[in-house]
Amino acid sequence: MAAAGQALADAIARRDSLDPRAAALEAYEPGGPTVAEIEALIRHQRGEAPTDTSPPTG
Questions:
Q1: CB count in 10 Å sphere of residue 28
Q2: Which terminus of the chain is more exposed, N or C, with fewer CB under 10 A?
Q3: Phi, psi of 26 (to 5 degrees)
Q4: Alpha carbons within 13 A on the beta-carbon side of 47
Q5: 24 CB contacts (<8 Å, ≥6 apart)?
Q6: pTM of the model
Q7: What is the 3-state secondary structure (H, E, C) of 12-53?
Q8: Who contacts 20 (Cβ-Cβ below 8 Å, separation ≥6)?
Q9: pLDDT confidence of residue 5
Q10: Nearest residue to 37 via CA among 26, 46, 28
Q11: Are the CB atoms for 20 and 46 separated by under 8 Å?
Q12: Is residue 42 within 8 Å of 17, Cβ to Cβ?
């Protein structure tokens, strides 16, 4: 159990050492959430403001 906890801590530390986009690209697997969805989740977990990638209106 301790080894699993350490592996999780190491993975989180690695993720948090990267900017959200790079971390999302590294975590992406085909068939799973999109890179944008993963990036949004990472930003939420870090307490960061979401990025608006929608095209400008008007």
A1: 15
A2: C
A3: -70, -35
A4: 0
A5: 35, 36, 38, 39, 42
A6: 0.71
A7: HHHHHCCCHHHHHHHHCCCCCCCHHHHHHHHHHHHCCCCCCC
A8: 39, 42, 43, 46, 48
A9: 95
A10: 28
A11: yes
A12: no
Q: Which amino acid is at 50?
A: P
Radius of gyration, CA atoms only, the chain: 14
Tens of pLDDT along the chain (58 residues) come to 899 999 999 988 988 899 999 999 999 999 999 999 999 999 999 898 887 666 556 6
57 vs 9: CA distance, rounded Å: 42
Residue type, 40: A
What six digits make up the tokens of 13?
Answer: 């530390």
